[in-house]
Design brief:
Blueprint lengths: L28 E2 L11 H11 L11 H11 L6 E4 L1 H13 L5 E6 L4 H8 L3 E6 L8 H6 L5 E7 L11 H10 L5 E5 L14 H5 L5 E6 L12 E4 L2 H10 L7 H12 L1 H25 L10 E5 L4 H11 L1 E2 L1 E3 L3 E5 L3 H18 L1
Parallel strand pairs: 1-10, 3-4, 3-5, 5-6, 6-7
Antiparallel strand pairs: 2-8, 7-8, 9-12, 11-12
Helix pairs in contact: 1-9, 2-9, 3-4, 3-8, 10-12, 11-12
Bound molecules: pyridoxal-5'-phosphate.
Length: 357
């Protein structure tokens, strides 16, 4: 009854929620899903509440208002845009539009956990190219792994869960090597957190490359993870394919209106991102001072390669009141959150290091 392609699909493990506060006990901080810790901005909240009064009606199926806003903000034609239920939703549409049984979808590993899931759902074969020893995309190895069955390549920049980036020269060299019939998807879910000017903006790269598609989301910096809205920027054939593979009415009016309001409140939102970037520096430097080797991160999280100690570390964090994201046997990804939560994480890291290493 069920397709064999489903047999090998790992189920997506969401970041654990923070434990319900025990009266008198410590507040728990959720540092497990790379969310923005700030509550919605006032204007965004009002737009969402206003939209809620109309939820007996279907949303605007074309997302016209949001598309117009994105088009203006990013300087791209509306015909190059497609929205979806989070950028994961758009990523799934991209795989469905390009790859089926017998085709290959390539990505670095470890990278974003949704890639193997959406690849297998399509019936395509995942090709996972290991990160370098420094936990960075190995673009040369990826270029060499391209076959005549490769249909789509994800480049997650910065990479989830390591936070590492690929820079302009190496990314351009890679794009030059990819055949024009292979779609390269630059997943830039954490774009707004990048402070390294050598990391290219995918929107510059896509303009004269018809086989490059950029994925962005409102879930991270813009703080709308719960509303499920993301978008793709790509040349017309790809953008049109995304409109064909979209489920009708998949982005709610609440999400559309809140996303428009977020773009209009961008200065304030990006100011908050600036504070998170300061916290990121503080956490990173704190860990390095404690003696940890941490890959340089350009995202709103840090990666600690803990190997066999991963689960024990995550448990120690749990007990102290911060929930992190363990990848058993490999490491933990810890979101930069409220400074109180970051402090607790740093304290756990310090004592764990003293006890265990
Ligand atoms: C969080 C994340 C996304 C965005 O997910 P949404 O579906 O937009 O919430 C996409 N790609 C990566 C690598 C992510 O970490």
């Amino acid at each position: 009854m069920l397709r064999a392609a489903l047999d090998d699909i790992p189920t997506y493990k969401p970041g654990k929620p923070a434990a319900a506060p025990v009266p008198g006990g410590p507040v728990a901080y959720k540092l497990s899903s790379n969310e923005n810790p700030y509550p919605p901005l006032p204007g965004v909240m009002e737009a969402a509440v206003a939209a809620a009064s109309g939820f007996n009606r279907y949303p605007d199926a074309t997302c016209a208002g949001l598309m117009a806003e994105i088009s203006e903000r990013f300087g791209v034609p509306v015909s190059h845009l497609a929205t979806g239920t989070g950028s994961v939703g758009v990523a799934q549409q991209l795989v469905q539009a390009t790859a089926g049984p017998g085709d290959e979808v390539m990505y670095a590993w470890r990278s974003f956990e949704a890639y193997p899931i959406i690849t297998r759902i399509s019936g395509a074969t995942p090709v996972q190219v290991p990160l370098t020893d420094g936990d960075v995309h190995d673009l040369d190895a990826m270029a060499e792994a391209i076959t005549d069955r490769t249909r789509l390549i994800f480049v997650c920049n910065p990479n989830n869960p390591t936070g590492t980036v690929v820079r302009r020269a190496e990314l351009e060299r890679f794009l030059d090597r990819v055949p024009s019939g292979v779609l390269v998807v630059l997943d830039e879910a954490y774009r707004e957190f990048i402070r390294d000017s050598d990391v290219p903006d995918g929107i510059e790269l896509y303009r004269d490359r018809p086989n490059v598609c950029v994925l962005r989301t409102f879930s991270k910096a813009y703080g709308l993870a719960g509303l499920r809205v993301g978008f793709a920027i790509a040349h017309e054939p790809v953008a049109t394919a995304l409109r064909k593979t979209a489920l009708p009415f998949c982005v709610s009016q609440l999400a559309q209106d809140a996303a428009v309001a977020s773009l209009r409140a961008e200065d304030e939102l990006l100011g908050r991102v600036g504070s998170l970037v300061c916290e990121r520096t503080r956490v990173y430097e704190g860990l390095v001072a404690q003696g940890w080797t941490v890959p340089e991160t350009q995202a709103n999280f840090v990666w600690l390669r803990l190997g066999e100690a991963t689960v024990a570390f995550a448990e120690a964090c749990d007990e102290a009141g911060v929930v992190v994201r363990p990848f058993p046997g490999e490491g933990v990804r810890v979101t930069i959150g409220e400074s109180e939560g970051n402090d607790i994480f740093l304290r756990v890291a310090e004592s764990f290091r003293k006890e265990r290493f």
